[in-house]
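Service request form, structural biology core

Requester: graduate student, group of Dr. S.
Request type: structure prediction, single chain
Budget code: on file
Notes: please return the result as structure tokens.

Sequence provided:
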Amino acid sequence: MSKLFKCHKISEGSVEAEVIFSKDDIMFYLIDPETGTVLEKAHDLEGKVIANKILAFPSGKGSSVVQADGLFQLMKRNNQPAGMIVEHPETVLVSSAIIFEVPMVDKVDPEFYETVKDGDKIRLDATNEEITIL
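Core staff response, request fulfilled:
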């Protein structure tokens, strides 16, 4: 079942991976860099692994230092998200995605959130502003 959704490019690139959704904002500093597991207590994704998955989430949270350094620490160990789908991009998150070359999009067709579920494999083609269910 291949279905295509339009989106808006923030950081270019294309990746195919499993998608994981969070209802909560993400603080990358509270993700274990060794495993990519969310450590934040009472977080929607507490105990779940985001490493090498396409992370769909509302926004980032925390200071610029903890966001950028948290993502950098994940990248040093190859445990960063494969791509990011963000509802409310903010400056530090956007600049980090661009610098670390993580494909990132926003303004996704609302049907995407109604159709795609945790664990679905998708292609995030930020460069061409498309998301496809594989």
